Design the sequence.
């Protein structure tokens, strides 16, 4: 376990506020990774991907860098433009993030 991981684990156990803030940010990063992976699967750069899904390149960049949380309707627009659909599931709050990302 890295030094940072140890500090995060300790701070999460000591502070409910830190734990919540960390988990909120982790969720943003997880979604950013998913959108990045989706774009990579298309073989498109950000500009071409943005054009295909009718969004600006800066919007795609902000989502991929976790600086922006897209609305559900934006996610639906992106999915529809790519011939995809969105699946949502509820998972146990204690389930590790790595387990959640397995498709």
Sequence:
């Amino acid at each position: 376990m890295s030094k940072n991981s140890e500090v995060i684990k300790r701070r999460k156990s000591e502070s409910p506020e830190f734990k919540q803030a960390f988990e909120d940010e982790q969720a943003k990063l997880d979604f950013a990774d998913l959108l990045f992976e989706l774009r990579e699967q298309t073989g498109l750069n950000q500009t071409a991907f943005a054009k295909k899904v009718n969004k600006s390149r800066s919007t795609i960049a902000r989502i991929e860098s976790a600086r922006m949380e897209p609305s559900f309707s934006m996610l639906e627009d992106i999915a529809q433009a790519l011939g995809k659909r969105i699946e949502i599931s509820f998972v146990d709050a204690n389930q590790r993030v790595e387990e959640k990302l397995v498709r």
